[in-house]
Amino acid sequence: MKKLAELVFIPAPGFSHLVSTFEFAKRLCDRDRRFSVTFLIMNPLLDPPAVSFIESQQQIIKLIHLPQPQPPPPHLKPYPEIYKFTHRENYKPLVKHLLSNMMLSTRSASNSVPQIAGLVLDFFTAPMVDVGHELGLPSYLFSTSNLALLDLTLYFVTHPTHVKESDPELTLPSFVNSVPTSVLPAPVFSKEDGFVVTLKLAQKFMVMKGIIVNTFQELESYALHSFLDTKTPPVYPVGPVLGLSSSAETVDSARN
């Protein structure tokens, strides 16, 4: 009998990210009973809808609420993206300590006790891949969005220059046509804040064991094909992952 495998998810605290991440985890466990899942929750970063949603999931998936880390230095407050990035970075020692204890407690256990097999990280918690490397655990990125956003983010690894709003277009491998800069997310134009964080996150994506994406062949066939000849980690489309199984009451209360 094979040992059971436990996957540790470290999701981003935003409501939209949590819904699809929980849904993917439940789908994974339903399809293969050898998997179990534990979520590490960054409580202080949660917004009210996210708190309501998590409370509705406590009977379904094992949750571990992380303690409050050291806050970022005050001088970073004018840079909201860097401030939030640093806050998440400060969770690393707490996560490493927790995972080390979990691994130690299951190392000599029987086959009936799940062994930690790897980490599943979010777009915004990707820096936790460093903890995985230190503990010898493979890390996978779960992109709750599509390949288009992933490709845009990875673009900055090979083109680490600041994008200007005056630039006419960007040519991205996963897009059939050039992309007008007017439709790009606002953070990429912030040279001292959002762009810095975007580049750091993209660099972490490149050292993942694999990238799991909430998309499917029929939706992004061109984009999926564009990733076949790149140096990025393997891409696994698992979509569409939608939170349709959640009760309407739970979702409505969370949104309100």
From TrEMBL:
Q: Which GO terms describe its molecular function?
A: UDP-glucosyltransferase activity
What Gene3D superfamilies does the record point to?
Glycogen Phosphorylase B
Supply the InterPro entries for this chain. Answer: UDP-glycosyltransf_plant
The record's similarity note reads: Belongs to the UDP-glycosyltransferase family.
Q: What is this protein called?
A: Uncharacterized protein
